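Researcher: Dear colleague, please comment on this protein.
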Amino acid sequence: TTFQDGGEEVEDGAVYNVTLKKVQIQQAANKGARWLGGEGDQLPPEHTVRQYETSKIRAIKAGTLEKLVENLLTAFGDADFSYISIFLATYRAFASPRAVLELLLDRFGNLEASSHGEVANLNSLESEMVLRVEIASVLRAWLDQCSEDFREPPDYMCLLKLLDYLKNNMPNSDMESRVQNLLKQFQNQEVEAVDGFCSTSSSDLVDGEELEISNPEEFSSFQDHIVAEQLTYMDVMLFRRVVPYHCLGSIWSQRDKKENKNLAPTVRATITQFNAVTKCVISTILGTRELKIQQRAKIIEKWIHIAHECRILKNFSSLRAIISALQSNSIYRLKTTWMCVSKDILLMYEELSEIFSDHDNYLTSRELLMKEATSKFANLDSSEKENQKKSQKRLQLQKNKGVMQGTVPYLGTFLTDLIMLDTALQDYVEGGLINFEKRRREFEVIAQIKLLQSSCNSYCLIPDQKFIQWFRRQRHLTEEESYKLSREAEAAADTNILSPKSQKSMVKRISTLFLGTDVFTPPKEQPPKNSPIGGSSGESTDSASVSSCEFNHSETEDVCVTPISSPEDPLKKGYDSDKGSISSDKGLISSKGSDSSKGSISDPGSGSDSNCIPTRDLGLVPSSAPKELPVYNRQSGGSCIIRVSMDGLHASVYKSILITNQDRIPDVTQRALLKHNLEPDAVEDYELVQVISEDKELVFPRDANVFYGMNSHVNFDFILRKKA
């Protein structure tokens, strides 16, 4: 089979990509060979005749909402077999369920009006039957893939409208029974708290229980594999509930607006769980003042073993949460404690940390995730013989039980990719048409999420209420509390380490760790070379950027923002508090050395010079998206991405903004205000400044062209400052 680009077809309200598909349908012997009695598949090529058939694949590239909905009915005829799935997974970015349902049923599904030519000249009983089948096919797919779209308590307007349509046009059908059952299910179902497994609020505790600091003996009583299984159980329950469209960049990037505090609850729940695990690790290590150094080292060792068990269970979410906690400011500074951790366990810790190395845009974790997405068991490799033996022994026990495993990913990777796609690609193209090529690219990421959700059905884990209750009871330390306890456990040997108050600027919301377009800049860590512990292979020792954690019970989205590469030797580290330079957030995706062949997405906030968007072929119709997309820190094709922070209160959080060579100061200022949820009409009250160095700034005149006026030899970092 071969494909050939057939160009574009333009219709009123739609643009289509055309691909010609050439398929061999028959191979037969030529006349001479047939006279000799030969068969086609037994003869050399010069003695055979091949017959080919060329078919046209027409995939909508951009269109009005009406055309996109109409295409749901014609996509199969155009051989665009993945269109319905792509549309259903992404339409919430540009339309509501009600708008789509009304168009589908009232305009294109009105069988009574079909004889009047309202739907492509349907004027016969046969064509009416075809339309009925097409409508039923779309509705069935909608209910199969996105039934949550119809959960609209207490009125369920869309579901009632659909039920009314089916009663009139498809009475007594299976579809009608199914919709009635779904309506009853929604009406009888109490609203479940999606964070029910990980909430640490007192309302979730049994009467008489209070939040408490972990008792080391109680924590030690739980076997390592039991803790890992229970964390995996909680992660699986939450990840399976994630509604894929909640992850879309256009949806997730709006989460900080006041009116959107309940937006994307299924994603927020996974974030809350990630935070809970991270905070639990820190509180168990630091929460008890009376612990001796050797006892504290044993708890660190236990968490490293639990992280290893999570790796065996293919739970990359809790694995990353544990590693992040161990790399947090208050833990890695415990020099004497780390010296008491055994060498074998430190090597295990280093290998686990390297999974999340940011080298090549987190290539290691991406490849590992895709490799194990649908595998029955983990593929464990260790450079240390002792660790290899232990891993294989544990893995063999799993295999002997015959229990297959799914894969729980770190959701932040996908949120990053979708945010970057949303930033780099326009929502609308020329003529005000919805850019559906963007949705096809987004679906490539969403399809991976769905695949992993499906794999989670393989887990067979039983909840241990004793552990879950213990986990819920843990009182999480604030950043100041954990830092104070860390100082009490081991007095600071390095005066350069920042105090919690001076680290306030390092605190950011977990939504930025899980990637929004707002990115936080922590201070750089510059450990000495030749550190015995950690450091991802191929990375310089001064590239790790570390920040501390602030845990706030009233704000469920605070997080420990930590480096994802293994920290250099925590026994020898010292904070460089004098560094005012901007470094990328290692909780985010960077793209050192990434290229388009990697099929990966880069963080425009990472300062990389080679960022790209994935172009993986999932067997869908060929994409005609531009090969080079706007990136951070490089001007290309008349566009680039800059980072804009607000002076003063919001100085530690920035937003990624796409600019072109046509944009002037008022346009960029207005977009920056909108991104920071401020009044866009206040453009005249602000000035845009590019940060050149610690003591130099470039102030732009009122009508300057930002693209041509900016200094392209330094980071594309800007500040929006209120005029004096």
